[in-house]
């Protein structure tokens, strides 16, 4: 299995747990991303049970980097609570991918705009 895809789901699991609790909406988003990344239910369960078992491989493609960062920002926002630890993790991940931390704020605003347009 591709460590990049496993690593992305691991990142989401770690982010969901950063504030001490994983909500149902966070778990649902993680399951949707795992499905998109073609992880089996067994692989997802293994990651949830033992996230340390996967070494993260960062994406090379720009489109993958942006999609993965968007996944993280979406997960951070899904429970309606912008937790400082989650925000710090998203900014760190952005920097690891080679982006300025301000991209996270831009993505937050884009998501809020999308939500407002849907209402």
What secondary-structure arrangement, pairings included, does this model have?
Blueprint: H1 3-17, H2 24-36, H3 41-49, H4 62-77, H5 84-96, H6 102-118
Helix pairs in contact: 1-2, 1-3, 1-4, 4-5, 4-6
Could you characterize the architecture of this molecule?
This protein has 119 residues and is mainly alpha-helical. The protein has a single domain (3-118), classed as TerB-like (Orthogonal Bundle), CATH 1.10.3680.10. It is built from six helices and no strands.
Which keywords apply here?
119 residues, 70% helix, TerB-like, mainly alpha
Summarize the structure.
Helix content is 70%, strand content 0%.
Average pLDDT works out at 89
Gross CATH architecture:
Orthogonal Bundle
User: Which percent range describes the beta-strand content?
Assistant: under 5%
The tally of helices reads: 6
- Total count of strands: 0
Rg, alpha carbons = 14 Å
Q: Terminal Cα separation, in Å? A: 39 Å
Report on the biggest sheet.
Answer: none
Q: Tell me the CATH superfamily.
A: TerB-like
Q: Could you name the ranges where pLDDT drops below 50 across 5 or more consecutive residues?
A: none
The shape, in one word, is globular
Helix content: 55-70%
| Secondary-structure element order, N to C | HHHHHH
Per CATH, what is the topology? TerB-like
Q: Structurally, how many domains make up the residues?
A: 1
| The first-level CATH class name | Mainly Alpha
Structural class by SSE content: mainly alpha
């Amino acid at each position: 299995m591709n460590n990049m895809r496993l690593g992305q789901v691991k990142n989401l699991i770690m982010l969901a747990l950063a504030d001490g609790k994983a909500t149902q909406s966070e778990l649902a988003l993680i399951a949707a991303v795992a499905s998109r990344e073609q992880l089996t239910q067994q692989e997802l369960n293994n990651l949830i049970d033992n996230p340390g078992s996967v070494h993260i491989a960062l994406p090379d493609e720009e489109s993958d980097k942006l999609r993965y960062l968007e996944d993280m920002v979406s997960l951070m926002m899904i429970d309606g609570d912008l937790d400082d630890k989650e925000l710090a993790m998203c900014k760190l991940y952005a920097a690891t991918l080679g982006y300025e931390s301000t991209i996270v704020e831009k993505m937050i605003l884009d998501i809020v705009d999308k939500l407002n347009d849907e209402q």
